[in-house]
Amino acid sequence: MKERTLQGALTFLGFVISLMAVFYFAVAYWANLSPWTRLTALLLLGLSLTFLGVYLRDSLIGQPFFNGPRLSWLRPTNVLYLSALFCGIVAEIVFLNMDDVARPVKVLASLVVGVGLVVVVAVRAKKHADVAENK
Amino acid sequence: MRPVVALGASVTCAVLAIALVGLDLAFNVDYRLETRTKDGTWRTWTTSDQQTNYGRFPSMAGCAGRDLRLVVHNGDLWAKDIQVSLDYYGFDGTSAQPVMGTWHLARGETRDVNITIPASAFHSDGTAGKPVGAQVNVNVIVGTNGYLSTCVQQEAPA
Question: Which of A123, B62, B97, B148 is buried most, with the most CB atoms less than 10 Å from its CB?
């Protein structure tokens, strides 16, 4: 297992198969779950994938799957972050389709969460930039 | 964030998600549809565990006049009550969907209902004739928007 490409291909395959298993489970049992369970499970799954990406970021597995400048973006952390992003988008779709929640509440909650995310990320990014500058 | 903390948070979120989904699947609406066979015994025709198969639609000619028993239990985790209905649908191009019955069940309630498919089923004008095929549907409405439905695709037990 010395060849880097083979290592990367097998690792990538492992991630793809695992994510497909999760996706298949979701599709198979989607109809049997209540909307609130779908929403909560998607949010928890998204958070889990994000935290896993953070954990793998500086580890050996966190390296790009394949060598070369064009595929350097294809690494486990980005795959996990994109999967978490997908979970978040589907969770929002589930939330907007819930009949138990009034429409104004849906709009307000979605706006608060969306704008809040942008603001929090911007504030934290600025804080990190200031810290890096002071160093 | 330290890697150990991130790993712990990831595992915690995953475990919570799995537990929540597991609880929702375990505490669900269960039903069993039985039919009386020619020898007079009751046999299970379909249950809520069976996947809906939208394959071919076998002729339900042998179901006209059949006695049915539907046993439903509202064990849903979130819903306060559910609405259950049983209907049949004929594929002769003009059939309506006569509802054989609608029942409301509170949380934890179990209902046992007996109904009979009309002998003249599958024709919208009520006349008997050669049925061209039909399906029996068990419809469950959970809360305000949840909807579970099983189309009984397989032939009824003889």
Answer: B148
Place of tokens 């979605």: A110
Contacts of residue A51 in chain B, CB cutoff 8 Å? 6-7, 9-10, 13
Residue B21: C-alpha distances to residues A26, A52, A64 (Å): 10, 20, 33
Please, are residues B113 and B67 in contact by the beta-carbon 8 Å criterion? no
Structure-token pair, residue A34: 């209540």
| Predicted pLDDT at A28 | 81
B136 closest CA partner among B59, B82, B83, B36: B59
Q: Which one has a higher pLDDT value, B97 or B78?
A: B78
- Residue contact A52–B6, C-beta within 8 A: yes
Tell me the backbone φ, ψ of residue A52, rounded to 5 degrees. -65, -40
pLDDT digits 0-9 by tens, B108-138: 888 888 888 766 555 444 455 544 445 667 7
Task: Give start and end residues of each alpha helix (H) in B27-95.
Answer: none
Q: What is the ipTM of this complex?
A: 0.82
Among B87, B70, B84, which Cα is nearest to B134's?
Answer: B87
Alpha carbon B128 to chain centroid distance?
Answer: 27
pTM here is 0.70
- Give residue-wise pLDDT tens across range A29-38: 887 788 888 9
Answer whether B157's CB lies under 8 Å from B45's CB.
yes
Instruction: Select from B25, B79, B145 the Cβ nearest to the Cβ of A32.
Output: B25
B113 backbone dihedrals φ, ψ, rounded to 5°:
-120, 145
User: How far is B152 from B65, CA to CA, in rounded Å?
Assistant: 16
